[in-house]
Every structure is written in C-alpha cells, then in structure tokens.
Amino acid sequence: MGEVGGVKKACIYGLGSQAAFYENVGSSSASTTQSQDFDFDTRVKEYVQEMKEEMKDEMREDMREELREERNTKCI
Prior knowledge:
Elements: H1 19-22, H2 30-75
Region (Disordered): 55-76
C-alpha cells in the first residue's frame, strides 16, 4: 500500500516569481499562504489606487491645458 497523507511537490509552470505564493498550497502552512495572498492583494489594491490618482491628476492637467488653448484661440 502507498503512503497516506504525504505531500508531493509539483511544478507549476508559467508562474515565475509568483510561484512562491503557491508553494505551500495543500500543506500545513496554508495559513501562511493565505496571509501572503492577503498581503499581495493589499499591495495590488494600493498600487491600483495610486495609479487611479495619477491618472486623475494627468486628466485634470490635460483639461486645464485644453481650456487654456481654447481661451487663446477665441481671443485671436
């Protein structure tokens, strides 16, 4: 009969640096993986929020520039 309850290591191709987040799936340290996933999700959300703020700032500046150009064109 074979071993019961053993954990086999498997290769997950195509994950690159993200493979570390999936190393412990199915092992006793799954709670560590869950906290790593939470930390990763939090970092992604923070990054997305920063990008949104940058995009808003750029859009505001573009709109200001368009308004300036429009005013200058009407004055001529």
